[in-house]
Structure prediction request, 241 residues.
Amino acid sequence: MGAEKQGCTILFLGPDPPPGSALCRIEWVPLLAWHSIDKSSIILNKIYKYFDSIVLSSPRAVKAVYKDAEKYNILDKIKNIGEKLQVYSIGPSTSAVAEGLLGWSSTIPPLYTVVELARLVSRSNASRVLGLRSPSANRALQEILLDNGKVYLEHYVYHTRVVSENIKKLNNNVFECIAVTSSSIARLVKRIGLRGEMLSIGPETTQTLTSIGLDPVCTAEEYTLRGVISCAEKYCKNKNY
Prediction:
């Protein structure tokens, strides 16, 4: 007997490769790409001593630091930072990458959003906090930490860019389902004019989608790429694929 045909097709547009699914066909066309900022690890190695905590809001920040530290042969020094500072990660995916690449053990919030991450750090005994981020990251983390009396500095370790050549590939702008994994992706979907059922990675992305008139049919219960896959599979089952 041949393999059972898979159900609906899910279009993923984020910069990170999505997990697989036994129930859905996954089409990955990244509209955003990232690259590490040159010498960001060297700067990190110089400034970390002025802080007691580090905040990681994306696995890409960890990968960027790792890549740059390898380039400049200071990886051992960067790994030692995790022994001296408290590390906070936005969720299990970021925490696992930090542990695997840098050996940093981190604390994560109960809900994997920037707001919950900021609230977790705000309730902690951290006083001087360093965020490893992208210049395009949202301002919620900074605003909440400063409002709660924390000293906070953002150190930019990677940039993102729009992959214009992949936008051209999406010449058929109507799709079955579109997995939206960030507010940046949501705004790109609106700008390009893609149409389809929207699947959101979490409440912050859902809020952005709703604000631009793209109400999602499903929001992931776990705010991770795997959570979006589960959301997609649930949607496919409800549509009797």
Summary: The chain has a mean pLDDT of 91. Residues 35-160 form a domain with the Rossmann fold fold (CATH 3.40.50.10090).
